[in-house]
TrEMBL record:
One of its GO terms (cellular component) is nucleolar ribonuclease P complex. This is SAGA-associated factor 11. InterPro entries: Pop1 (IPR039182), Pop1_N (IPR009723), POPLD_dom (IPR012590), SAGA_su_Sgf11 (IPR013246). Keywords: Activator, Chromatin regulator, Metal-binding, Nucleus, Transcription, Transcription regulation, tRNA processing, Zinc, Zinc-finger. Belongs to the SGF11 family. GO terms for biological process: chromatin organization; tRNA 5'-leader removal. It comes from the Eukaryota. Residues 1-10, 131-147, 1142-1151 have a biased composition (Basic residues).
């Protein structure tokens, strides 16, 4: 410290001699910056907003950098176990970070020995230097030769060069457009670029090979598949992603250009005869050749047809493979038709030979052409597949086309998510523009309005394309080659895109290519297939892969394994993998045998299965046959081995079996009567296998039938299928109802660990039955895994028909046959296993006891689903009520704290927006923000209208609880469940209706009983809570048992009891009663001319006198005009009338007390009040209600005088004195001064 103090410069003694600062930085005084001595937080935060954000960002990045490593930023599907210590295994953007982390952790970094880098070290480093020197010398030599042969262009030489170029340009298209003279020869692919020519000597790259090179695993270079370099699977983990993309969300695409295409051209009859000779779609009958329905549309070129194709000769028919046949629309004035036949490459050569031989037989002959390297294809499936294709494939002439043309209908299908909603195997054919001109593509939002949906439904129902489809240009060789030649390079596309305005696509030109395409859907695979020229596949594929889906993400791509996985999840046998009865399937089996054995030998002994030590029971050791293969040779019958056993030379290409259609096999098994051909030649057919117990089946698994010779062993195997099936439990799991079965299974496992799995015996235990003998082996599993679509393990197997139908072991009864074979789910080519076509009835026979189990499972599923949906809806409604209550409480508190407008005007300070905060919500500036789970934070439910708490339980009946009477509750009470009461707590009526006087007496009694202890019909015990101890008594029922509802008449607007409403309505509307009969008689009298002089109908007893005929003005008002005969009749029957007479009210006395008279004689003003009814209105009312109230017990007729006229109405006249104490002068009687 002392040394440092000596080195420091001491300040000068003279303050004036101090060195002045070089910079003068202006600064505001604290007094001006903080005028009141306080910091304005809002202004301070705004001023330092950028600094605070950058500080927070740096803190967040520092925390993330310390806790996360480079390989953790890689997506999960790209992570590998070796990526944590190799910086080269992460993307380029993370390699620098990975190297820095490796250096900090002292992790050794191992560099690869391969590559083209110069800094490689090792014993062969000198070879790399030598090769570099040789390449430099060769480059210099070529450059010198180029300069030596350089020629100066003169006008004469330029003219010769131009003439030669024009001659060559005129000749090349003519040669290219010409068809080859010999159409029966196989086509050769176009020579690849010199850069990749040596890599395609024994195989052919797909158009998208460069795209798949770094993204997928491709077949080994020296082991191509069907002479193509085919991508097997993406490099990422895509098993679950493939399932989601193909069925739930998104889309997945495959480059299917390796599929072979054969072109046919000739007269329609000759082409049809060729297809008939090859037995196309023989298993489907003659439906495709009919002249109506689907067959007619297929022959017209507006549909595609998928079916099996067979060899031309031989019985039984030898199956080649599944094929798709597409006809072209016949052009007007042309007699020739064209067709495409698409088949898998494994069966192409065999089909080609058959087609060539059949084409020469036809008269006239059919031209056959190999289009394998001219027509490519892309297959795409998934909910967003239609959206992707409709956005990428834009027709070139969509604006000038009629609304029913394919170009106009195609963009409307963007919102279709299920291909099966379209017409079966429909197709579109039109030219499209180069999609690279609209790159990057933009996602098109599907139209979801009602108009667009209705328009789409009308289009799908009518499907006008069947009448407007034109001939597809892709059938023309000239159009295909023109599209490939006019396709611009990517460099020219980039130049045009760069020259276009920012954010816009380049303008179209007349020289832009017209790419002919043909798009068709497949109901079997639920996918779209696009046919287009071979060289146009790569541009369209690139745009499809980069298309942004409306639901998010991009379409995925798949390989051969993913295509096989999709078929497996749909329980559809995949060709050729699941068809060993064909040559293609047998060749695949031979390749898989060697591959499985090599993989098994590479594994260490501790990690591989020792097949020789497997215990099969009864002293048998080791697996039957070759454990790495589906040993079909062991299943050949002794009588057919000599005839069908192939030689050594053809054992790898010729199948020893014939593939049988699954539908035909199911019929044969059901009838147990195969044909002679099926018995003489071995046949195999595909079935679906569902696991009864645990375990996942894999390829080469053995399939046994139930033993027929050993009855005891057969009984043991049958006992395993009598317990609860996992299939039903899997379905219950999908419905969310396995929670009630879980405790039972756990308890069963704890009590009996051997049979804990639903009462079944565990495999491997001593009680588990042994494997049947070799005589019961009937087939092998070709594909097996866990099926994500069904949520359980399934498998696709092939069974030998002769093994299944052995006559020496034929069951005696049908039930035994069903038990021996189990449930065979047939797998045909047009339906999945266990799935049937709509409209086709299939017979399913259930064994003994299976119907009861099936019914029980269905009822359990239905009841559990109902309970689950009910509980879910109740939970959701309760949560919504709690959320609404939390918001209502916060709003009420905020509004209560708000100052009134009168006080706010007088105050000097400006009040801010109302705010409030509770434990459940926060109210701020008109918005409510909830906190946490409202089911926990909000115990009570508040009514949003009256802001009062609601009762949580009913106040009477079942589930009632006594509420807190010190609170005031909302009048919307919970529903009541009580016998003899409705949901509102009102008792049902127990007696007849009471008269008006009886109701008035009851109301008076109720008023007198208010406040009486023990009263149950009062709403509130007292108006003042203080009188009743601060408690309010709730209304427990509301109405007494004698209460009858009222209703208003829609005609006269009168309120009547519901018991009298029907009777009143008939009379009021004129449906029944005396008035209706009079009206009817009046109409009849008017028609016949037999009415009386007074206008009385014929049905009346005598003419009723008019009210004015009596001469009494009072009678005009009060007279009802009853007939004398009727009056007399009423008098005679008066004694029989059981209706009690109405008691007359006692008349009020006119006596006035003396004190009152003296009081009135004062100087108070005297007013004249006249009370009288309106006679006109009273007459109308009396006339309208006359017919309906004549027999009413509470409406008495008025007393009449002796002459029949009604008594005059009495008018009460009260007179008071005027100003002088005398009565006002009157010139007329009081009755004359009254106004109606």
């Amino acid at each position: 410290m002392s040394d440092n103090a000596k080195k420091r410069k001491r300040p000068p003694e003279d303050a004036s001699a101090a060195k002045r600062s070089r910079f003068n930085i202006p600064a505001a005084r604290s007094a001006t910056a903080y005028p009141s001595g306080e910091v304005n937080v809002a202004r301070f935060m705004r001023a330092h907003e950028n600094e605070i954000k950058s500080l927070e960002n740096s803190m967040r990045l520092a925390k993330k950098g310390l806790s996360g490593r480079a390989f953790q930023d890689v997506p999960r599907d790209l992570r590998r176990r070796t990526g944590s210590h190799n910086p080269q295994r992460v993307p380029k953007r993370l390699r620098q970070q990975a190297r820095r982390e490796a250096e900090e952790d002292n992790t050794p970094i191992k560099k690869g020995k391969s590559g083209s880098g110069i800094g490689k070290k090792g014993t062969k480093m000198w070879l790399r230097h030598e090769s570099i020197k040789k390449k430099k010398k060769a480059k210099e030599k070529r450059q010198k030769a180029r300069e030596k042969n350089k020629v100066t262009a003169t006008p004469e030489i330029a003219a010769q060069i131009t003439e030669h170029a024009q001659r060559s340009e005129a000749q090349v298209p003519k040669k290219m457009n010409q068809r080859p003279k010999d159409l029966t020869t196989l086509a050769a692919r176009d020579g690849p670029r010199s850069r990749f020519r040596t890599r395609q000597i024994h195989k052919t790259w797909l158009p998208t090979h460069l795209f798949h090179t770094k993204r997928a695993r491709i077949t080994p270079p020296k082991e191509p598949l069907w002479r193509f370099a085919i991508p097997l699977s993406p490099a990422n983990k895509v098993y679950r992603a493939t399932h989601r993309s193909s069925s739930q969300r998104g889309a997945i695409a495959w480059d299917m250009s390796y599929m072979s295409t054969i072109g046919l051209e000739g007269v329609e009859a000759s082409v049809s005869g060729l297809l008939r000779a090859l037995n196309f779609a023989e298993e489907q009958g003659s439906s495709c050749w009919s002249n109506k329905g689907m067959g007619k549309k297929w022959q017209n070129g507006t549909r595609t047809w998928e079916g099996w194709i067979y060899e031309r000769e031989g019985r039984p028919l030898a199956l080649i493979g599944p094929a798709t046949v597409i006809w072209s629309v016949q052009e007007p004035g042309s007699t020739k038709r064209e067709a495409f036949v698409r088949i898998h490459p494994s069966g192409f050569l065999r089909l080609w030979n058959e087609v060539v031989r059949a084409a020469k037989v036809q008269k006239p002959a059919v031209a056959v052409e190999d289009l394998r390297f001219e027509v490519g294809s892309i297959e795409i499936m998934g909910p967003a597949a239609t959206e992707v294709l409709s956005s990428i494939l834009k027709p070139t002439s969509a604006t000038n086309c009629p609304p029913e043309s394919p170009e106009s209908v195609w963009p409307k299908l963007a919102s279709v998510t299920d291909v099966r909603s379209l017409p079966v195997n429909s197709l579109f054919a039109f030219p499209v523009s180069d999609p690279r001109l609209c790159y990057p593509p933009k996602s098109a939002a599907p139209a979801v309005t009602e108009e667009s949906q209705s328009e789409l439904l009308e289009t799908l129902a009518s499907w006008p394309i069947d009448n407007t489809q034109n001939a597809a240009e892709i059938f023309s060789r000239k159009d295909r080659l023109a599209a490939c030649r006019s396709l611009p390079s990517q460099q020219s596309i980039n130049r045009r895109t760069g020259a276009a305005p920012v954010g816009q696509y380049p303008e179209t030109r007349t020289t832009d290519p017209r790419i002919p395409i043909l798009v068709f859907n497949s109901i079997k695979s639920n996918s779209w297939t696009v046919l287009l020229p071979w060289k146009c596949v790569a541009p369209i594929w690139r745009c499809i892969m980069h298309y942004p889906l409306f639901t998010g993400g991009n379409p995925r791509f798949g390989g051969l394994k993913e295509r096989k996985q999709v078929d497996f999840e749909r329980s559809h046998p995949s060709f050729p993998f699941d068809h060993p009865g064909t040559d293609g399937g047998w060749e695949w089996e031979m390749m898989e045998r060697s591959a499985r054995k090599i993989e098994w030998t590479k594994r260490p002994k501790g990690k591989r299965i020792e097949w020789t030590s497997i215990d099969l029971g009864s002293g048998r050791k080791g697996e039957l046959g070759d454990p790495w293969a589906c040993d079909w040779e062991r299943l050949l019958l002794k009588g057919s081995e000599e005839n069908t056993q192939p030689s050594d030379a053809s054992s790898k290409t010729k199948a020893p079996f014939r593939q049988l259609d699954s539908e035909q096999a199911s019929k044969v098994v059901a009838s147990w009567h195969p044909s002679v051909e099926q018995l003489s030649t071995p046949h195999v057919f595909t079935v679906k296998i569902s696991m009864v117990s645990r375990g996942v089946p894999t390829a080469c698994a053995r399939v046994y039938r139930l033993p027929c010779s050993n009855v005891e062993l057969r009984t043991k195997w049958l006992s395993l299928t009598r317990g609860p099936k996992p299939a039903s439990s899997a379905r219950r799991h999908e419905g969310g109802s396995t929670w009630k079965h879980t405790p039972r299974r756990v308890a069963a496992r704890l009590l009996d660990p051997v049979t804990g799995d639903g009462g079944r015996i565990k495999p491997g235990s001593e009680e588990y039955p042994e494997v049947p003998g070799e005589e019961d082996l009937i087939g092998f599993v070709t594909t097996g895994n866990f099926n994500l679509a069904e949520g359980r393990p399934t498998a696709v197997a092939n069974l030998v028909l002769q093994r299944v139908l052995r006559h020496d072991q034929r069951p005696q009864h049908d039930d035994d046959a069903a038990a021996a074979l189990g449930t065979l789910d047939t797998m045909s080519e047009d339906t999945a296993a266990g799935e049937h076509v709509e409209g086709v009835r299939t017979a399913v026979k259930l064994g003994q006891g299976q119907l009861a189990d099936l019914t029980k499972d269905i009822l359990e599923d239905v009841v559990s689903n109902i309970i689950f949906s009910t509980a879910l809806s109740c939970h959701r409604s309760e949560k919504l009520l709690r959320m609404q209550s939390a918001a209502t409480q916060a709003e009420s508190i905020a509004l209560s704290n708000l100052e009134p407008s009168s006080q706010a005007k007088g105050s000097s300070t400006q009040s801010g927006p109302p705010t409030a905060e509770t434990d459940a919500a926060k109210y701020e500036n008109g918005r409510v923000y909830l906190k946490g789970n409202p089911l926990k934070t909000t115990p009570d439910i508040t009514c949003p209208h009256c802001k009062l708490p609601r009762l949580m339980h009913p106040i009477m009946g079942k589930g009632m609880q006594n509420p807190d009477l010190s609170k005031e509750y909302c009048m919307l009470y919970p529903w009541v469940q009580r016998q003899g009461h409705d949901v509102y707590g009102n008792p049902f009526p127990t007696d007849t209706a009471k008269t008006k006087k009886e109701r008035e007496l009851l109301k008076k009694a109720e008023k007198d009983s208010v406040g009486t202890p023990g009263s149950q019909d009062t709403d509130i015990a007292a108006d003042n809570p203080s009188q009743s101890g601060g408690f309010n008594k709730l209304n427990t029922g509301g109405k007494p048992a004698s209460y009858i509802p009222w209703h208003t008449c829609p005609n006269c607007k009168r309120s009547l009891l519901i018991t009298r409403f029907a009777q009143h309505l008939e009379k009021c509307l004129g449906i029944s009663g005396r008035q209706s009969s009079r009206n009817a008689m009046a109409k009849l009298a008017g028609q016949n001319g037999n009415g009386t002089a007074s206008g009385t109908p014929l049905g009346s007893r005598m003419g009723t006198p008019a009210p004015a005929s009596q001469g009494d003005p009072v009678a005009k008002v009060k007279g009802k005009g009853q007939s004398p005969i009727k009056k007399g009749g009423d008098d005679e029957d008066g004694d029989d009338n059981e209706t009690p007479e109405k008691k007359k009210k006692p008349k009020k006395s006119s006596y006035v007390k003396k004190a009152d008279r003296e009081k009135k004689e004062g100087g108070a003003p005297v007013k004249l009040k006249l009370k009288a009814n309106n006679p006109a209105k009273d007459l109308e009312r009396k006339a309208s209600t006359y017919s309906e109230s004549s027999d009413r017990p509470d409406k008495r007729d008025r007393e009449e005088t002796e002459d029949g006229a009604p008594k005059a109405k009495k008018i009460k006249l009260s007179l008071v004195k005027g100003e002088g104490g005398s009565a006002p002068p009157t010139t007329e009687p009081p009755s004359a001064q009254t106004e109606p």
